[in-house]
Amino acid sequence: MGREYVLNPRNFESYWQDPKISLGLRFGRQTKFGCLDLDKNSKNNPLVNPKRYRRLIKVLRKIGIKRTVLIRSSSNRGVHLFFFLPDGVNSFDLACALFRVLSENCFEIKAGQLEIFPNTKRYKKKGEGFSLFNGLRVPMQPGSGSILLDPKTFEPLPGGAEEFVKLMNASCDTKSDRTPIL
Question: In sequence order, what are the residues at sequence separation of 6 or more whose Cβ sits closer than 8 angstroms to the Cβ of residue 52?
């Protein structure tokens, strides 16, 4: 992802608004969200194979992921499928659960097809340092080509980052009796 350094929250927004800077993040020990990356030519991408994508959504429901937020991640037609959790969970445990349920249901996890975030990290031998989770592009960054997509028609939806945040908050609201996003 290029240069890597930690941003303080005060500077994050100014960097986020700069279209010349592509921001990414890495998962820590705990997370309250996950994401599936479906590249533009992936057989799981809803713009390529809507039927297979809908099967992917059903598989996620098996582990309690009932509401999702779909975005086109950039102008190249790849998509990111986000889900948000009401409480923090262990990032590695979430990665393992995603890997297992998707693999057991015949979804091949590999670059260019289906990537999971957080990912199951590579093993490093003692003394080789720490293994990091893969980096993920920050969603809805201006100038990135990122837009919200309708979860049924996969057409672009109005609204930018503010609408993404509303959908994010609604998707992890366990007390809500509203219709799920998907």
Answer: 43, 44
Element containing residue 114 per DSSP (H, E): none
Residue matched to tokens 């992936």:
42
pLDDT in tens, 14-36: 888 888 888 888 899 999 999 99
Each domain of the chain, given as residue ranges in start order, spans 43-171
- R_g (Cα) of the chain, nearest Å: 16
Report whether 40 contacts 76 (CB < 8 A).
yes
Average pLDDT, the chain: 86
Residue among 53, 35, 55, 36 nearest 44 (CA): 53
* Strand, coil or helix: 122: coil
Mean pLDDT along residues 77-82: 94
Q: Which residue has the tokens 């366990």?
A: 174
* This prediction's pTM: 0.86
